Task: inverse folding
């Protein structure tokens, strides 16, 4: 496992400390989890951008045109 020295403004450090306490985890665990979430979000965005470039809009429209028109299930109208 790698070590990282990080300087943060006191206000951010205070918020991290408070959130970690509320969540019942260490500051290290909280920061590690937050970074993992950010990495996942960036990787997902990159993946979706690559997939979108391969998309065939005409094929997508053809698939959507085959969807049967029907009334929405009660509660799904909005």
Result:
């Amino acid at each position: 496992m790698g070590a990282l020295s990080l300087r943060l403004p006191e206000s951010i450090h205070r918020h991290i400390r408070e959130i970690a306490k509320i969540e019942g985890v260490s500051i290290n665990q909280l920061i590690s989890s937050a970074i993992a979430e950010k990495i996942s979000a960036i990787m997902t965005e990159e993946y979706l951008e690559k997939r979108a470039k391969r998309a065939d809009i005409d094929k997508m429209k053809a698939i959507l045109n085959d969807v049967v028109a029907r009334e929405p299930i009660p509660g799904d109208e909005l």
Observations:
- The chain has a mean pLDDT of 94.
